[in-house]
Amino acid sequence: YKMKGDPQWGWMPAAKYNHDLFYLSPFYHLDFPLDKLIVTDTDIEFKFSIDLLHAQFSLFSTNHLYSLGPDLTPFYADRLFDFRLLHPETHLGLPGELQGVNTGVVLLHLERMRQSEKFNRYLEPEVVDQLCEKFSFTGFIGDQDWWNLVVWDSPELLHPLPCSFNF
């Protein structure tokens, strides 16, 4: 343990995100023979009928492939600091639909994801590298960072999930 102010002081992200488990959700449409899927963190406590969450699928427009709630922390504003310096007009990372998404509750329209050439290009490592460069982004929170890159690059594919579903 080092004290802040010590030249050796630093902040390290949780090592748990190094495990493969935290990188699977972008590939669910390739493995699960379902049309739709709801995925939640294990610590989610349902205080309403899951039917209300499932009903969000009926609010998808024809171009929506998935639904994620906002990350209500300033985390992604911080991670996008360099990008926002170069692009002062951007809304990425700021409060609103593009501030960042949280993967605690995710609705996936798997059938549409399978059919979307655009979405499936995001699975290619070189495309992810290009997005990281485009947004001056270095992430470490598993597939949540990947989802944010995709949402920022193609916000039209996202149905914003009201934060009340992941509070």
Q: Structural class from helices and strands?
A: alpha+beta
**Mean pLDDT figure:** 89
Strand order of the largest sheet: 1-3-2-4
Rg over alpha carbons: 17 Å
Number of strands: 4
| Proportion of helical residues | 25-40%
Termini separation: 32 Å
Largest β sheet strand count, sense and barrel closure = 4 strands, mixed
Oligomer: single chain
Task: Flag low-confidence runs.
Answer: none
Individual helix count: 8
Question: What form results from the Cα inertia axes?
Answer: globular
> What is the chain-wise order of helices and strands?
HEHEHHEHHHHE
Strand content: 5-15%
Notes on the structure:
- With 167 residues, this protein is an alpha+beta fold.
- The protein is built from 8 helices and 4 strands.
- The chain has helices spanning 28-31, 50-54, 75-79, 81-86, 110-115, 117-121, 125-134, 142-153; strands spanning 37-40, 66-70, 101-108, 158-160.
- Strands 1-3-2-4 form a 4-stranded mixed beta sheet, with helices on one face.
- The longest helix has 12 residues, at 142-153.
- The protein is globular and about 45 Å long.
